[in-house]
Design a protein that fits this description.
With 474 residues, the protein is an all-alpha fold. It has 22 helices and no strands.
Length: 474
């Protein structure tokens, strides 16, 4: 007897990467026993969730590119405009203040919908990036990059909210890991173009024009991306009795803000001054920097995938503890070693520390209700920027005083260690819990339903049919 299985992957843009794994899974897992393949989300995605995941991942590539421009090119910009390390730290810090302005943008997403804001932010970011390519001075460039960062932050926030609202309870951190990989791909594309900076003192400007090529992609994303179902569900309801500043939500906001502040105070200087460290202290040129960052950062995608899946299976806190202590500890060693050992340590640090993004980032959307989920995530991003600014300024001044970045990073490592302690003591475990369980005000009035005698948790979209015959990845 011959069995033939006809199927179609509902994953736009990235379906080719899942084609072979899904084909193999169809042969091995024809009778679904509840165990997903290691590469698949811990909880199956339905067709809509898979389609939304592919679409917002494509948008995350653009957000990653726009959000990384200044970090990867500042050392070359400094040559043209004659800026020392301290000045670079201040410039990078000022650019990050654009995230504060993004609060006004993401607030619209809570009132008018996620989709419109995502599309407007993407177009605005591209326009501001192109304007920066024509910068006559450092001040003009910093202003244009503040605008880019505002739109990139707003786009990233709305994408995160989409993932939290559209994915099933057992796959939210996994979804963020895929978004992190997509964003990292966008950031990596900056490195692909970065060798153009060696063409001359003004060569870095080419990197700022490249986002124009994403306009046709945005048109297709706008066609595919639906409005968030959870937003549509609560949009017609009366406003909640409690706001974001209430006793129910303000403590969570402050705790997550403090944790984000401390993590960013370490990660931003590590990212901002990495190229400067490699260029000045290790003698790398643009091509060697690209090779190092690519070889060290690419395995981080595996860390994202494993970390996101682990955060959904074993819990957020254990993953955060491992990534914050072990992963970032290895990153400190990268700045204090040289030669082949530095390359090896960079790979290890990339893989382990990458798990921080999905395991910690998912809290930004899970702990707040639909009506101000975007604003809460935006405020937490602002507090992260405050940490980023503080870390950059401190790191820049200490690096000039100590004539080296390595000891500075060792001191700054104290900040994420404190953040890990706050996570363990003050945050709840949210893995495999529905958003309506975490935020009862989103549940709405009870509606008559048929008795359910099963012990399984409710599905993200109860109106969808049983999906036991669906594909591992949608």
């Amino acid at each position: 007897m011959t069995e033939t299985i006809d199927y179609h992957l509902a994953i736009p843009y990235f379906g080719i990467f899942f084609a072979i794994p899904v084909r193999r899974a169809m042969k091995r897992f024809r009778r679904f026993d509840g165990v997903q393949p290691w590469w698949a989300p811990p909880q199956r995605l339905d067709v809509r969730a898979a389609a939304v995941m592919g679409t917002i991942s494509a948008a995350a590539v653009l957000a990653g590119y726009l959000g990384t421009l200044i970090s990867q090119t500042l050392t070359f910009i400094a040559d043209e405009f004659d800026v020392d390390r301290s000045g670079q730290g201040v410039a990078g810090a000022v650019v990050r203040l654009g995230v504060v302005a993004s609060l006004a943008v993401v607030a619209v997403a809570d009132r008018r919908g996620r989709r419109k804001v995502a599309m407007a932010a993407a177009v605005g970011g591209i326009a501001a990036s192109v304007a920066g390519a024509a910068s006559p001075s450092l001040a003009f460039l910093v202003g244009s990059q503040m605008t880019v960062r505002m739109f990139a932050a707003a786009l990233g926030t709305v994408i995160l909210v989409y993932a939290v609202e559209e994915m099933p309870a057992g796959a939210r951190a996994y979804a963020l890991s895929l978004l992190g990989m997509s964003s990292a791909l966008g950031a990596g594309m900056v490195l692909w173009v970065l060798p153009a900076a060696d063409l001359g003192r003004r060569g870095w400007r080419i990197v700022y024009v490249v986002p124009v090529l994403a306009l046709p992609l945005l048109r297709d994303i706008a066609r595919r991306l639906p409005e968030s179902r959870r937003f549509m569900t609560t949009a017609s309801r009366p406003p909640p009795s409690e706001g974001l500043g209430s006793r129910s939500h303000l403590p969570k906001l402050l705790v997550l803000g403090a944790i984000s502040f401390l993590i960013a105070a370490f990660l931003s200087p590590a990212d901002q001054f990495r190229n400067e460290f490699l260029r000045d202290e290790r003698g790398f040129n643009a091509g060697t920097i690209t090779l190092f960052v690519t070889l060290a950062g690419t395995p981080g995608g595996l860390g994202l995938l494993i970390g996101g899946r682990a955060a959904d299976v074993v819990g957020r806190k254990l993953v955060i503890l491992t990534a914050g202590v072990v992963g970032l500890g290895f990153l400190v060693l990268v700045f204090n070693t040289a030669g082949p050992l530095m390359w090896v340590l960079a790979v290890v640090a990339s893989v382990i520390s990458a798990a921080l993004l999905p395991s910690l980032g998912v809290y930004r959307g899970e702990l707040f209700p639909n009506r101000f989920r975007s604003r809460a995530a935006g405020w937490i991003s602002v507090m992260a920027v405050a940490g980023s600014v503080s870390g950059l300024v401190v790191a820049g001044r200490l690096a000039d005083r100590w004539s080296g970045i390595g000891p500075v990073m060792a001191v700054l490592w104290i900040a994420p260690l404190v953040a890990v302690v706050l996570v363990l003591l003050l945050l709840p475990e949210t893995s495999r819990r529905e958003l309506e369980e975490l935020n009862p005000e989103d549940a709405g009035p009870p509606t008559p339903t048929q008795p359910d005698h099963t012990t399984a948790r409710p599905r993200l979209n109860p109106e969808d049919p049983d999906r036991r015959g669906s594909l591992p990845d949608g």
